[in-house]
Design goal:
homodimer; 42% helix; 386 residues; eight-stranded parallel β-sheet
């Protein structure tokens, strides 16, 4: 059995003087990751198109996998036999898993929140399943991920007051059950390694409900705090106001994780509000659709404008796609429906996200974050360039 | 303008004592490749799922691209502007292109052999096109590929005597026109580099027509000779008898290329008959379907038998998929429809093909080819293992 640290292994090394941005390092049983961090999404156990050697080479230090997907395929038993998820997928670094509740809610046609947990049907074969707070932790205990998430109640947006109230009551209740179960397992994975359990703050865009949710969870004391239920249709302004209000009620020494977001601009705005960790399918999904990022915004590579553009996606980028291939070539591969196009664009987009985060960490450490943010937001346009 | 070699740069370094197998080196304007060689298929300018750095790392020294596909997308003009195909796709090594005639025949619904050439409609948009012998060389001249193929007439299998007779007459006529055109361009690409033009032997499975076709082409003197019109439905026995009979009528000092084949066993049997070069979509296409090779045969990775098989695809393999990932994991990725599965299986299958060819070259050089072949054919089974 590994030695258990009783303290949370998160150390902040710099705090921006003008904003809530901070940089730090999180130590896990599978090594460290620097914050603010972006975790590429390895939904079903792979970052789509890539081998993990590539993911690592792009600078990613932590990846996210989905409990819902892995529970359905290949199933917990195969991963147990493999010796846990790190071994099964051969990612040796820090790993984050969600509870699976959100995917059950989004992917299942027959999803139902009950007091005891959530019932849903597999999107693969329609088979019925039930996740309780204890069950999703038990799965994550076998997965052996480093950062684990409890089951929570995520209301849709917009939601009426009664539903938000219910979601907070249930989320807090499940958080309690989660903490009890996790402590009964000595906060260890099935493989004897320290797992960090987070509390997930809900409350839609309501400042009072966010405050209440945060306070109830902080009282329970978690290793870190996640912000759930955002980017569901509310305006960007509402999103980041909600983030800011929520963060005010979270302890400064715990890692803060903004779930399932976002665009490059979202990352910068979230960091400004004090967020330490992000995950999102956007850069990899966009890559597969032919949309790539640079410091000016998004390029839709299929566009005719790139037909004879023999420069790289981004002159300043060090990714394998930019070092060795042109926009014209990658555009051609997308138009010819070649899988290599998706592979190259994925390499680029994840490199760009990691480069953005490397830059932000540097700017926080040199106390230049505000100037960087201003400059970035002026140059970066959300409109697509074709 | 580059210096033009007047002799064909193919040197045989070993000849097997018991069979027609031989090993050698072909020198091109883009470097050498050792023979017997297998050229992975980069149909539309990429080996599907891979970057060329990966293709190179697997040991491939030459790749094949398809004139038909590149002519339709992105079109010759874009490749001309890029400075040729090597630059456009960033493959710096030897490259082979076909004439496009075979793809026009296989992919177009409105294909017609005429005396002047072939007319067809694009499989992308139905637009009408015409390939003459001169036109396909003009395209390949701009592509700048090292080994180029003339337009030929490939009869279906089976074909009646009259059709085979016509195909030989047309193929020889077009070969003459091709040679005239190519010599008028000093055998140089648009980029001033030596291009090697091959003659393509047709004749279905008829020994007499194959002999006649070979003799007519040899009289015209080409840099190398390709065997077309095989693996179209005839038995394996007929295929390799035809290969053997054809090779007898080809000059020993010229490279022999068996087009569009084949399985690992096909490669060994072809090499036994004196073939120096192969290309085939099989290993990459099979990879994307989840079928992978090892020295015992083919594994269908999706099979339930691999669910908890935590060994590599092949214990002796040095490819990135075998060094770092298990059958159980790759099977899971196939079942979850993850693109990474295709990527990994492609890496493995191409590595296996290159490893097979490396082994064969070594065995020819040590005069152990016959023993190797016997051993290989005893172990290698064509049936799939699930």
């Amino acid at each position: 059995m590994a030695v258990v640290s009783e303290t949370v292994s998160f150390a902040i090394d710099s705090e921006d003087k003008l904003t809530a941005a901070r940089s730090g390092v999180m130590q896990t049983a599978h090594g460290v990751f620097q914050t603010p961090a972006f975790a590429p999404v390895a939904t079903a156990g792979s970052v789509k198109t890539l081998l993990f050697e590539e993911v690592r080479s792009l600078g990613a230090e932590i990846v996210l996998s989905n409990t819902y997907h892995l529970y359905l395929k290949p199933g917990v038993e195969v991963i147990r036999q493999a010796g846990g998820l790190h071994r099964f997928i051969n990612w040796g670094g820090p790993m984050l898993t969600d509870s699976g509740g959100f995917q059950a809610y989004r992917l299942s046609e027959f999803f139902d929140y009950q007091e005891e947990g959530v019932s849903f049907r597999s999107h693969w074969d329609g088979s019925p399943h039930f996740f309780s707070p204890e069950k999703v932790l038990e799965i994550q205990q076998v997965l052996g991920s480093d950062l684990i998430m409890p089951l929570d109640f995520c209301p849709p947006y917009p939601a009426d007051e009664a539903l938000v109230a219910r979601s907070i009551r249930v989320t807090t209740e499940w958080a309690k059950r989660s903490k009890t179960w996790w402590e009964s397992r000595d906060r260890l994975s099935h493989w004897g390694q320290r797992q960090f359990l987070f509390g997930i703050v809900q409350g839609s865009t309501s400042p009072s409900w966010r405050k209440r949710s945060a306070q109830e969870l902080v009282e329970l004391e978690f290793d870190g705090y996640a912000l759930g239920g955002l980017s569901l249709g509310e305006s960007k302004k509402e999103t980041f106001e909600t983030v800011g209000i929520t963060v005010e009620h979270l302890p400064a020494d715990r890692l803060r994780y903004l779930m399932g977001m976002g665009t490059p601009a979202d990352l910068v705005l979230g960091i400004e509000q004090g967020i330490d960790l992000f995950d999102c399918a956007l850069p990899t999904r966009n890559a597969r659709n032919g949309t790539v990022y640079n410091w000016e915004g998004k390029l839709v590579l299929k566009g005719a404008g790139f037909k004879d553009d023999f420069g790289p996606i981004d002159e300043r980028c060090g990714c394998p796609a930019c070092r060795n291939y042109t926009r014209a070539y990658i555009r051609h591969l997308f138009n010819a429906k070649e899988i290599t196009a998706m592979h190259m664009a994925t390499l680029h987009n994840l490199w760009f996200y990691q480069e953005l985060l490397r830059t932000v960490r540097e700017k926080i450490r040199t106390n230049e974050f505000t100037a960087f943010k201003k400059n970035f937001m002026e140059r970066y346009r959300e409109e697509e360039i074709c």
